[in-house]
Each structure stands twice: as structure tokens, then as C-alpha cells.
Amino acid sequence: MPSHWRAIITQYAFSLICSLSVSLSDYSDFRTQQLQFRGDMPVARPETSDVRVIAHVDMDCFYVQVEQRKQPELRGLPTAVVQYNEWQGGGLIAVSYEARKCGVKRSMRGDEAKAACPEIQLVQVPVARGKADLNLYRSAGSEVVSILAQSGKCERASIDEVYLDLTDAAESMLADAPPESLELIDEEVLKSHILGMSRKDGDDFKESVRDWICRKDADRRDKLLSCGIIIVAELRKQVLKETEFTCSAGIAHNKMLAKLASGMNKPAQQTVVPYSAVQELLSSLPVKKMKQLGGKLGTSLQTDLGVDTVGDLLQFSETKLQEHYGINTGTWLWNIARGISGEEVQGRLLPKSHGSGKTFPGPRALKSLSTVQHWLNQLSEELSERLSSDLELNKRIASTLTLHASAFKSRDSDSHKKFPSKSCPLRYGVTKIQEDAFNLFQAALREYMGPFGSKPGNKQETWRITGLSVSASKIVDIPSGTSSIMRYFQSQSTAPSRSADGCVQDHVEMTPSATEGCSVQRSTEAQAIIHEEDTGVTYTLPNFENPDKDIDLVSKEDVVSCPSSEVTVIPTQLESNRSTQTKRTGRKINNQNEKNRGMPSIVDIFKNYNATPLSKQETQEDSTVSSTSRRANFSSSSHSNKVNQEVEERRETDWGYKIDEIDQSVFDELPAEIQRELRSFLHPNKRLNTSKSKGDGSTSSIAHYFPPLNR
Ligand code: TTP
Known about the structure:
The protein is an alpha+beta fold. Among the domains are: 60-131, MutS, DNA mismatch repair protein, domain I (3-Layer(aba) Sandwich); 139-307, 2-Layer Sandwich (Alpha-Beta Plaits), CATH 3.30.70; 354-452 and 461-481, DNA polymerase, Y-family, little finger domain (Dna Ligase, domain 1, 2-Layer Sandwich), CATH 3.30.1490. Helices cover 42% and strands 13% of the residues. The strands form six sheets. A six-stranded mixed beta sheet has the order 7-8-1-10-11-9. Helix 12 (255-262) links the parallel strand 10 and strand 11 (270-272). The longest helix has 26 residues, at 369-394. The protein is globular, with a radius of gyration of 27 Å. Bound molecules: thymidine-5'-triphosphate (TTP).
């Protein structure tokens, strides 16, 4: 085999074994993959000794602004965006500031809002597949991100929120054109709210701001913050000019403080937290308002330690807090009481995960497996569409599928029992996602109902589903050089079709066979789901999250957070059933029907590969070029390049880590020369997973997926 082909194949094998391992190894690597449980307890991260300048930018009444841009005649009028739902005029999800002045709140339904403000304009969220379609808002959010990302390291935190690390930009400004040297300070800068700024009676507000910003005797931290104020004001103006959207911002020395500040003066304003104002800010801040203290941890602080405000934590030593909450969380609490947070702005412009959800409140609660399946199919379709577009546009793939639901029982002896969340390896293709989502649901339902809950004939206990969502997480970039995988996916038909070997059953069995065909992982931390009806948004509320703003944060992110580390794989009989079953069907994957249903075989990928043969070195150079041009697309600024370089580095780490998860038995069945090539990719210090072959008498399917090229 020519060396350039080997190099190409090696790259494919490398990426496919890591990412598409569901089809290649019949889930075997997932069986050996033990993901670590990470609870939702906050963890202290060391704060750098260098002064940082961080901004949190939050769009004002975002969905309303998007709708007003579409219909300019609505500008200036009290307006609200309502969900797709006829009941009582639909629930409000975004309310303009004009409507807020009339007493309209997000918690209201359309009819209530009209009663409070008869002139209110209600705009319905766009609808697709019988549920809210948020694409319009997502792409509007992306427009904003692309502007903000030019200024420094940028982290998209939700559909309408962004963190920026402006340290480099502020330092450059301080070196080249410090505020005190500026003759003209923009009006937008002068409108900034600077916490703790002293102002003598009668002093003009803007003059006081100017004095604060231009103080010659200010310390370096405040000088950098002043530069941040000027930069953010300029960015907000640019966002307004280019997108017609207003936004508010918080500017501080860390993410935590910047986020707290951004909501303090809305709309279209910015708030600054100098070091000197931190204690005062925190002393009056109710613990529950602090990110990560909205849930059980905050409640425990209130009830067990009598802490009402974040500042109250100052009375406890670090050791005392560690005794109560463990070393990490204890230190984190000690730190936040002092406004210390080492959390860094991640250079991430794309969402961490994708989710699609819907609620079924009151009489619309789902009560049969067939209706659940119907809705899961819709949600899975939307999810699949977004995964395909992420793959196509961003060359990213997700590897974990998670099902969340909220439910209640008709005769509930255990009313607080949450419907468990379930995850499994994600298989691309609409039908696969639909099948897996439904299987996850059935597994979760069995657990929720308990051993006697839904025995056939047991009419006493029935269930109702009030919310459903599916999400895809553990998203990673495809390593460069795998362009034909993209081509393969593009050539795939995504038309859903009923699976011949599907595991869908329209009843709940209390035996494991109900989920045959699914490898089920149990989410160790059940996540509460709070949905807005029909918004298509799933609001996950991990324990200890702030139920107010943090729900927003997660929900707006379109993200159902399911980091791998929160999921524990529990190898079950079901998984080996799955392995066996998939092995049986593995050989068929080459036929057209199978192809249309989801995961490609590696053979098909090779068939579609038309690249001009290159030497191994050339291949690598080519990869570099492609990743460079991808970087160039993000931003031309050198800072951005640095950001993306970090992303590239992280990507390599991601894949390096995954290599360790390759099942030895899968590896053994690769052709010897490919094995050699693959080995050369492996980190010398890391070894392959040495778990034994499955021992069920069957051979792994990899050989069938991986015939010689000249076949
Ligand atoms: P938020 O930023 O929480 O609110 P907002 O932008 O509407 O208003 P504010 O000026 O106070 O920040 O949410 C951003 C968008 O997310 C919001 O416009 C609509 C959507 N959203 C929901 O769909 N459901 C919700 O429960 C929340 C909180 C937001």
C-alpha cells in the first residue's frame, strides 16, 4: 500500500476509532470507557497574580430585539415574544423594556400581559415541527459574537451572552494611548456606572466618570479597568451599528464579578467593578443570587451556616468551610467571599452542546409511549439537523446523546422522585438518534416507575410526561485532514426511516430487554428540567445552580449541559446485548439501506475519498493549511489567532486522550501496517487500553469495516 494512502487511512482510522466508535467497535470502547463523575459542586481555581480585564456582555431583551429588527414598526412599542401555544395567549419569554415599564413580566401569559398593558405587541416565536424554532435567535447571537470576538478571547456563554478577556487589548491601550492622555472621551464611556465611584453632591455624573477614568494617580488595576471601559463602550457601539441590537456589559477583573455587574444597569449600559468596590458589592449580595449558589449549596449556606449574603461568608475560615463542603468547594466559597475567581474565559465561539426540548404542561402532559415517541422523533430530527450543520460548518462532532424528561405519577407515593436523565453514545443519523432517544426514555421510565410501577395490568400507577429534551454533548473538532468524512456525511441521505432492527417497543417492560439495542449510561447527577413551553429550550438546572439567572444562562445557551465528566458509564447486560446485536448487523452496513440510516462504514468513507495523493509530510502540511485557513475565518487579529491556536492545542489533547480509550481488541484487528501507522500517532507515554476482547465468541466488526482499499 502506498505510504500516502497509509497516512490518510491512519488518520481516518485514528479519527474514526475515536469518534465513530459506535459503528466501528460495537460500543466496545464505550464499555471500557469509564468517565469520571464530576458533581456540580463548584471548584476553586487559582487566580492568576496578573491583573485581568474581563467583560460580560449580555444582550437586552434579546428575542424582542431580534423580532423588532425584523419588524421595525415594533420598535419603541411595548413588545413581548410569546411561545407557540394558544393557551391563554402563550407564555412570555422575552419582554421589551417599554412593556416592563407597564408591569409586564416574563412569568405572565399573553392574556395577562394584555390586561396589564393593552397596547402590548405580542410576537410569536417561529415554529417548526410543532415546536419553537430558535434558529433566528441563534444566528442573531452569532452575529454579535463575531463582532465581539475581534477584541480578544471570547467565550459564548449562551444564546445572547459573551465573556471577553480584554487584558491584552487593555494593556496595549495603556501602553500606547492611556485614558489620561485622551482629549476626547466618548459619550458612551461617560455613561458607565462605576461601583464605589465617589461623587460630591452636585457633581456632574459624566464629569465624575471622566475624572475616575483619567486619574493619573490611579493604580495599575484601575488604569487597566479604565481601558476596558473604553474598549467595551466602543464594542457595544459597534454591535449596535452592525446588528441594530443594544447590549449591556459588566467590566471587572474576573468573570464572576463581570457577570454580576452586567445585569445591574440595563438596558444599553455598562457597569464597572473596581477592586475597591468588591467587598461592598458582595456584602449586600444575597447568596442565592451568586452563580452556583442558587440551589442546594446556597440553601445549605443559609440554613446550616446562617449565611444570607455572600459577604457573610467572610466570618468563616477556609478550614471551616472546607469541613462543611469539602476542600475544593470550601476554598471556592472562601474565595468568592473575597471576590476571587480564577475561572478563565474559554476561547469558545461555538456552543458546548446542542439540545432540543419541549414542555407539555397541564392537560397537554404526555401519557402514552406512542406520543412520547412522536415528540422524541421531532426533537431528534431537530437535533440531528443541528448536528449536521455543526459538522458541515464547524467540522465538529458530538459523541454523547442525553435524554432529559420531567414527569409525575398519577398516584404518587414518591412525588419527589425525579425522572432520571440517561445518556448513551451518539450515533449520527436521524433514525439512529430517534431510536436511541426512545430507548433511553424507556430505560429511564422503568427506573422512574420502579419495579412494580408499570407491570402489564397494573392500572394503579400511571405516568405523565411534562417535558422532554434530547441533547448532544462532548463535542469535539474533527482533526484536520478528514475532509472526506465530511463529504461522506454530505452524501448521506438523512431521510428518516424505520429501523428494521430497532429497539422501539410501545410498552414498558420491566426487564432489561426493553432497551435492548441501547447502551445506557446513568447520569449520576439528576438534572432538574425547567422548560418554557414550546421554546425549544431545555432549561437544565444542575444541583446548586442558581435558579434565576443561571437557568437563563444554560437555557439561552441552547445547551443541556452534559459534560462527559458528569456521566458515568454503567456497563450493563444491555450493552453486551447491544454489542452482539450490532455485530450481527455490522456486515450489512455497506448496503444502501443501512447507509441511509446513520453511521457510515469506513469503507464508504474511503470510497468517497478523492483527494490527490500526497506524501505523509504533504498531508500534514495540508492539514496545517486547512486549520490555518479555518483560523483565518474566525478573525484576522493576532489575538484571535492565539485563541485559535489554543483551541487547536486543546483539540489535540482531546484526541490524544481518546486514543487511550481504544479497545485493544479493536486495534488488534486492524491490518498490521495500519496498526503500525496508528502506533506512530500514539503518544509514546500513553498506552492503549488493554481490556480484553469481549469473550462472547464473536469477532469484532472492525475487519469488516476496514477492507483493503483496492477492494
Ligand atoms: P435573558 O438574557 O435572560 O433575558 P432578555 O435578554 O430577554 O432580557 P434582559 O435584557 O433582561 O437580559 O434571555 C435571553 C433570551 O433567552 C430571551 O430574550 C428569551 C430567551 N429566554 C427564554 O426563552 N426563556 C427564558 O426563560 C429566559 C430567561 C430566556
